[in-house]
Records
---
Amino acid sequence: MSDVKPTDSQSHPNSELWDEVVSWLQHNWDPNLSVDEWWQAVAKAGWTAPHLSAEQGGRGLTRRSPTTVRSAFAAHGSLRPPGGLGLLMAAPTILTHGTPDQIARHVPPILEGQSAWCQLFSEPGAGSDLAGLTTRAQRDGDTWIITGQKVWSSQARESDHGMLLARTDLSVAKHAGISWFAFPLDQPGVTIRPLREMTGDAVFNEIFLDGAVCSDSDLIGGEGNGWAVTQTTLHFERTGIGAGGAHAGFPAPGPKGGNLGRRAGDAALDPIPGNNLALSLADILELARSSPRGRDPLVRQKVAKLVTFTETGQWNALRGKAEAARGGGQGVANIGKLAQTRIMKLAADIALDILGPDALLTAPDGSQGGRFAQAFVFSPASSIYGGTDEIQRNVVAERSLGLPREPVPDKGAPFGEVLRRMGVLTSLGSGQRTDGDQPTDRRDH
């Protein structure tokens, strides 16, 4: 039975869509279904990604419709649609650049929560300069043999596939010799090692690839076109995590997430994973109103600034939606990512101002289970993931404002020649790790 109050629809900016979702849930929500069965029903109805066209598995609604849909699911007490990085980045990238066969094989499992994805972009020697990556993919008939190392891959241990960037040609300039693969993680030659963070969690991982394989049929966008495909992936990532973007981190998809066989009604009661890592404007307003420190003029000034950042972030998201409809919006996505960083850091700073030393206490002694301490130590990560703040500012300056680029050494030179000058080419393609590190906590697939 629905617990949606009449005011829920009336107070929501898209009440017509809200009512449509609630009506569907009243006729279809069955808490006794398995998560697997429920998510398949949700995907079949087009609610997982309602902003996609009907042909792509959605309902042809606006870019912001997923926010309304997921809010209505939560208010109804139903298990939310599946999410994750596959929905945020992999599916829209494959829909943009993939063949009909690739779309048919990879997108439906993402929409149905059957497959989890991670991002295999950054490397120990290619972080800010992503195009300098040295992971190699060498063709062997209809198969690619892949050797190299990736790092900072969120949720790799829980994922089934990776969005892999690898170098397929050393004889051309570095941006031209990269390809984008839909890479299966469960195979020999793949070692995943968790990286412990100062939050105490190990969301990030490093991945070692020693002769792993990927079918040529999973090369997305064509050989050597990986940089263009990557720009699509990064656009969807920055749009999604920027201020005003839809949250994609809902119940963990895929068999490794441990949800598919559970009773849907039980899974619906789980807290949203990672929900304590970020503080919303509503969290800070509630905290300020409940504490005498909330009346301090300096605290109030910071809260006002947070309100301003949040509102302008929402306006920027609407601007991005309008420009995306005209085929642009890349610079707006970068601004949105910067806005999200400001909001996360300022919100954590205000919480510490209000709570004082108590804000640094972790569970079980800290306020609200130690969530403010967790949010504070996590907040610096917002300047790094999805591209550092410096990268975002460079993109805005060069692509949106038209400012001159910094001089690029070896621009246009064959990347293999650049690596020879650096003395590192001999280690590539040999099947050896370039950092000389041997993992002690192995997870071989």
Note: Confidence is low (pLDDT under 50) at residues 1-11, 243-249, 429-445.
---
Amino acid sequence: MDAPGPTSSPVSESSAPASGSAAARVYAYVKERLLDGTFPGGALLSENELSQQLGLSRTPVRQAFVQLEAEGLLELYPKRGALVVPVAASEIEDVFEARLLVEEHCARRAANAGPSLAADLAELISEQERAIADPGAGMAVFARADRHFHRAIIAAAGNVILTRLYDALRDRQQRIATVSLARSPGDAARFIEEHRGIAEALARGDSEAAGERVAAHLRAARDLARGIRDG
């Protein structure tokens, strides 16, 4: 397995903000590329190569790798590097099971949120349309916009604990969406149409339709994501 090389400009330890650290900056840099698919599952990341390309010592890179291993995104192999953990079939099923439980319920409650939610969702759908219209944006941009759409509905339901639970799934959700849509980018347009249907049901205060459309949408997304394990 070859270690993919970062393409950004070198990072200077001396230019790091006083409130941050080199390790935190490496962590953010690597994690972004794990979530957007730049560092794909099965790739072997070299501690030495990353430190050279980012213009840092190996210590902050090692610290970032340890933190990312704790989050289940990397597996460390002494003297070899860090293996990017592929998206597992069990992870897909678990994430979507949790999302279905939370999001269908929240969609029904959010039907009483009023016009402010409708305006927010309309803007978020426009953001998704811009993402797929821009050839340079990539599926990671759409995946983030997709997540913001769903989170707006959950937040509108007014249950702080459920919102925090959803946020805890954020990284896994984005990674699964980015990988699955990269395999089938045409499905992004279909998801936008499904988002419109959800937004319309919420705008007219139809809690039953909103819940049903969210559930159908998530099942379709789950079916697409299942293709990751078959690829």
Note: The first strand starts at residue 44 and ends at 45.
---
Amino acid sequence: MFHVRLVLPPDLTTDVRDHLAALETVTNLLVLPGCAVAPPGDAVLFDVAREAVSPVLHGLRKLGVDPERDDTSVALDEVQAMPGHRAELAERAAPGAPDDAIVWEIVLGRAADDTRSSWSFHAFLCLATMIAAIAVITDSPVLVVGAMVVGPEFGPVSALAVALVLRRWRLAWRAVRLLVLGFALAIAVTAVLALVTRGVGWISPADLAKPRPLTAYIWRPDKWSVVVALLAGAAGALSVTAGRTNVLVGVFISVTTVPAAGNLAVALALADGNEVAGSALQLGVNLLGMTVAGYLVLSVQRLLTRQRQAPE
């Protein structure tokens, strides 16, 4: 179940109240005339089954409930538990299973959040890339996994897939820009630190030339790299739409985006052109593969949804 809070101008309240009261998927409907202060107006509160959130909001938009208006506000909050007969009736009235329902407004909102450049995003990506750089020098798969988990890059990747499916081109541009700038900064910072450690004698070109059986795959992409990227992207897209954030940990440790960036940074510092090219290709394969898979999964989900649920 989702809890929805509306702030409306008084001229919309009656139509909205009557519309919601007639829906079997809506329960706990409250109308509080004149209680809203900023923006001023009436407050309407109700709970709705997850499967019906997007159709209900789409119906409200037809009545004039547009979040883009200055005098209207829409807020969504997922309810963790709602025992009771009325909630069960609302769930039964909604078609399909809750886990299969896509609340496009939530997906789009999270995508917008994931494309905002922030200090924490760049800090995590730099730290993850530095951990990955140490991993390739020491040939440590444990550090590779650690770098994968720390890296925040899947957020803008999934946002890019969402933007392409919903044709939000400004959002797509923001996602691409964040990925490019984020990885460029992380690789540059890590390469500078690698140069410093090379200068003090901690690393040398021999560290890349020596056998590294546990991490050599990072800069040697093959057909399995493509397969893993596609599978991880598909799983990530499903986790985003179904609200299963725990699945994302598995996505993080499946693809070698951050490890490839770390290897690329070290190879730049040690002037190993072969590994620079291989690492760059691995990074590109993973980012492109996850985006393509996410786009395909989200597109299929839209086609399988009979009602028009995606926000306009």
Note: The chain has a mean pLDDT of 88.
---
Amino acid sequence: MRPIVIGAGRGSRLGPETAEIPKALVPVMGRPMLEWILEALGAAGFGRRDVIYICGYKADVVQSRYPEFTFVHNHDWERNNILASLLCAREHLPGGFVSTYADIVYRGSAVKKAVASTHDKVLVCDTDWRRRYVDRSQHPESDAEKMRAEGERIVELSRRIASEKASGEFIGVTKFTPDGAREIVAGFDEARAKWAGKTWREGRTFEKAYLIDLFQEMLEAGSAFHRVDTHGGYMEIDTREDLASADKWWRESPSE
């Protein structure tokens, strides 16, 4: 099992911060977001040489700074989205994997819980997610990748879930065993065969789909997904407003 960092996009909502570097290298609280991610992955036993990095925008910058990574190129990053980006690394998926968005900061305990779970398809859920949206004007709660769950079992994933009915927010960190990984690849191929070039879920084309679009499709077909929780030990850095709030959010988050 290896960790996969999905970092092909630019992060245009950060404006000039990403003019010369990709989003993952934007400093948050004194160091690049990617360094926070590597620290969290390290808490679960993953070293830098284990990392598979999916690159696109300014790929040469990441490659020069982190030559120890295994790089996969998403050459079509300007026209696709995070689901297609992950599947660029499909040759690395069969052994099982942990995947993470590249524009987030989170506690290593969340990764440790996911890896330790006995379930095949595990998503990390932030149960204290709403506190970060109180003063967040550029990224409202309606944009959150929310989930509903019954105990550990996830029953729905959608931005359209009403906030008061959500069990929490999917933070963008997953764990899939080899069996789980095979399900993901098969689910992607089945969806692509039906929906390539067409509008798929929540008004998005298949090419512009998010991870939760595929996961929800699989849930509706009877596939089992489970959650592990962090209770506020996560934040997304999507806008310059988020950058300005990061230090406060982190200071107010739990240590575990």
Note: The mean pLDDT is 96.
